Amino acid sequence: MNSAGWTSLVLWSACFIALSCGTVRYQPEQIHLSYGEKERSIVITWSTGNETDSVVKYGGGGQLLQTKTGSSTLFVDGGQQKASQYIHRVTLYYEDPDSLQPETKYFYHVGSDRGWSAVYWFVTPPEKLNDWAPSIAIYGDMGNVNAQSLPRLQAETQAGVYDAIIHVGDFAYNMDDYEGQVGDEFMRQIETIAAYVPYMTTVGNHESAYNFSHYRARFSMPGPYENMFFSFNMGPIHFISFSTEYYYYLHYGFKMLVKQYEWLENDLKEASHPANRTVRPWIITLGHRPMYCSNKDDDDCTQIKNRLRYGITPLRLFALEDLFYKYGVDLEVWAHEHSYERMWPLHNYTVYNGSYDRPYTNPEAPVHIVVGSAGCQERVDHFNPLPHWSAFRSSDYGYSRIKVHNATHLNLQQVSDDLDGEIIDDWWLVKEMPRIRFPLAEKMMEDDHLPSSRSRRDDFSNNSLPPVVQIR
Ligand SMILES: *[C@@H]1O[C@H](CO)[C@@H](O)[C@H](O)[C@H]1NC(C)=O
Ligand SMILES: *[C@@H]1O[C@H](CO)[C@@H](O)[C@H](O)[C@H]1NC(C)=O
Ligand SMILES: *[C@@H]1O[C@H](CO)[C@@H](O)[C@H](O)[C@H]1NC(C)=O
Ligand SMILES: *[C@@H]1O[C@H](CO)[C@@H](O)[C@H](O)[C@H]1NC(C)=O
Ligand SMILES: *[C@@H]1O[C@H](CO)[C@@H](O)[C@H](O)[C@H]1NC(C)=O
Ligand SMILES: *[C@@H]1O[C@H](CO)[C@@H](O)[C@H](O)[C@H]1NC(C)=O
Ligand SMILES: *[C@@H]1O[C@H](CO)[C@@H](O)[C@H](O)[C@H]1NC(C)=O
Ligand SMILES: [Fe+2]
């Protein structure tokens, strides 16, 4: 090789190591969808290394005749190299002229005249929410290394099995590692599912670096709180995603913890107002660290004075179990423990079965499940002896499915990846009579176990709802 050849080889090696050096990166990557601010709107998010316009070309029938533009923000990793990327967002609304139509398969690609992505597609929900019985894959704790559940999720998602995917915290392990390259690689890998259905998220402890900056910058959840807490609706379900991490990373400040608690109470209050609950009878919360678990580790969920459940001691600040009980939350989905666990209907370590034979039909307390076994390099967690409040456990890698049947019936399944996709748990959550509150909530409020609720006792003049009505 001549000296020019050597020079260019050395230059290229240096470039390869630095991953930048004059090369331009206009190609869109890390494409993913989410639900936007307005119900059923779709946000398309992607990244480029260098600044470009933010354009989505889309259309039904395979022709990309419609154009929508958005904007980008510069995201700088907190590491030494200060690696940067532009994160682009474009929102498609039903209200836009000629824009989204219900029950339509849209094809799209993203980018700018400097480079276009591959063509992806998504399907819009039916116009009448009552006609929509969405199917959702839900899990937590899926990393870059050993993402065991990903191949099965790719096959199912691309075959149209799901309407959305929910990731309940702990992404990539960790998104900030190697100057943020682990996060980039993770986002490229989930593009194979997240570019087809909304990929809705909850923050976990592995996102804590730089005050959760990667999580806050990379996703596009609704609401003003940078993906940390928000709610969204899917058919008859009102989902509430919130940060359990505010309870543990107190050195980032109390302010957001206070704000979140106020927001949670207000959101629950609105969602459980008869006018809303009649239309969306199911309330499901999404939080990363559980209140209850029976794993053989000393995590906070094994402790009676768990911070989320009991509140931050000694004053029991921001306790969530009573709050969720008071507003009749139906299902609380958690992760963090690398296993699957389903509890009996539970409040304050007491089981409140609907009846002995049918514990999940008209249960008298929320049901908790832990779904943190999607796959990461930390391997699975094992268990202590079975407590009286726990119903089913498994340390297999896998993920859960929520299938809405109607306003009274939800079906939940746990898929084992270790057993080649076998369904190892299959159960129904049933509310035959529409209900806002659990029976004891009234008494709790009387007994003043909930200081903040006392003044608001009149929110519900009436504990029963009229029969579920057909909605638009
Ligand atoms: C593209 O981005 C790289 C890395 O941020 C930077 O060094 C380079 O100057 C940019 N090039 C252009 C043309 O903007
Ligand atoms: C962390 O971010 C929140 C906003 O989400 C902000 O209120 C808080 O002050 C930040 N904490 C630190 C230590 O920067
Ligand atoms: C129903 O929920 C919406 C938000 O989804 C809220 O704006 C409205 O105030 C709620 N209705 C009631 C009566 O609380
Ligand atoms: C939970 O139960 C314990 C005793 O088992 C009781 O001391 C405590 O007050 C209860 N907490 C609530 C919020 O009811
Ligand atoms: C709840 O129901 C399950 C299933 O029938 C049963 O094993 C358990 O003992 C029940 N718990 C209580 C407190 O009734
Ligand atoms: C709701 O779905 C369940 C399960 O598919 C079914 O048995 C029930 O009849 C349905 N109820 C209504 C009102 O359609
Ligand atoms: C509660 O609300 C239902 C439906 O609006 C109504 O039929 C019933 O009479 C109310 N009960 C009381 C005690 O107000
Ligand atoms: Fe975790």
Automatic annotation (TrEMBL):
Record-linked Pfam families: Metallophos, Metallophos_C, Pur_ac_phosph_N
InterPro entries: Calcineurin-like_PHP (IPR004843), Metallo-depent_PP-like (IPR029052), MPP_PAP (IPR041792), PAPs_C (IPR025733), PAPs_N (IPR015914), Purple_acid_Pase-like_N (IPR008963)
Entry keyword annotation includes Glycoprotein: yes
Reactions listed under catalytic activity: a phosphate monoester + H2O = an alcohol + phosphate
CDD domains according to UniProt: MPP_PAPs
Keyword annotations of the record: Glycoprotein, Hydrolase, Signal
Biased composition (Basic and acidic residues): 449-460
EC nos: 3.1.3.2
Signal peptide, first to last residue: 1-22
Purple acid phosphatase N-terminal domain residues: 28-124
GO molecular function: acid phosphatase activity; metal ion binding
Gene3D superfamilies documented for this protein: 3.60.21.10, Purple acid phosphatase-like, N-terminal
Lineage: superkingdom: Eukaryota
Region feature Disordered, mapped onto this chain: 449-472
Family: Belongs to the metallophosphoesterase superfamily. Purple acid phosphatase family.
PANTHER family linked: ACID PHOSPHATASE TYPE 7, PURPLE ACID PHOSPHATASE
Protein name as catalogued: Purple acid phosphatase
